[in-house]
Amino acid sequence: MTVQTALQYKDILICPQCNREKNTFNQLILNSDKFKCASCSMTYDVMDGVPILAEDYSSSHIIRRTNNTKNYNIQDNQLNRENFYYEHYSNRSRTIDLQSSYLLKERNLIETFIKENCINGSCLEVGCGTGIFADVSTQYLGLDYSLSSVFAKGFTDYARIVASAESIPLKSQSVNLVFSFNTLEHIPNPELAFSEIDRVLVPSGYAILKPAWHCTKYNTELLPIKSYCELNFLQRCHKFLIPLLKSKAYKFLIKIPQRLIRKLSYSFFSSKIPTKLRYRKLNPYLGNDVFIADCDATADIDCYEGLLYFESRGYKIISHKTIISRLLAGNDLLILQKP
Fold first, then answer.
1. Which GO terms describe its molecular function (predicted)?
2. CATH homologous superfamily for 6-210?
3. Which of 50, 224, 268, 282 has the fewest CB within 10 Å, making it most exposed?
4. pLDDT recorded at residue 56
């Protein structure tokens, strides 16, 4: 197998700080083992072929290599989010993860989709984790916020970068396929991530997205596993109602009217204006003592809002061709094509 690094994409790498703060797209210049922005003078480290392009991990932080297994620690200004995802992927192995059934169906789908649609250009995975999708394309590029994930055992022969999905450090219209699974719900501002995905896609490019839609406050508060004596009055009421809140009947009675109103409002009053992504902010639980599904989510995103966001920008909704299928969308995978 040919060893690949993200340095093969150096001509399309841009400064994430300029992108985020000035909405300008300044190309990075590689000098020895660092990338530098000629506009803002920000420098970014390159570690074993991996550009560290998340602003939190810039050279203003002290990053040191702790051992020969490509395991890195941040030494100052540690943020809870950084620590959590560093620990989450520490000692993880791509080789072992590939032996599990995790996202097996999605892996087969992406590989088949690339072949059937003759996608020969770059394929960006947002939230690559340990890289279980890394061999779906020879033009694969993985992006993750976690330092430890991109240096997972078995992932070191593939192209990957450390960066935030809120400021993807790639030139506009430079990617043929963007795909992402179980990631966008963990981004503090998912609307920025949706906008960045739209920006980097080439015309007629594809996006395949499946975050964990409809994340819940009761999971981020650990209500399902806490005893009633640990909760305040409102939390106890919330915990008691969880079976109802999870029922299909409740979701149908609440979600469908909301979506109909949203659809009618958009169709009649703002159909020519790209809509904003509506979502509810969550306070994630980032402890390492217990873990339940999506307790670390930062956003509750309705699948329908994701569909409407791209529909309002002229995307072809391949996965949900009819209005009914969009209104009834649950924890669905979205397949989209940019105009």
1. S-adenosylmethionine-dependent methyltransferase activity
2. Vaccinia Virus protein VP39 (3.40.50.150)
3. 268
4. 67
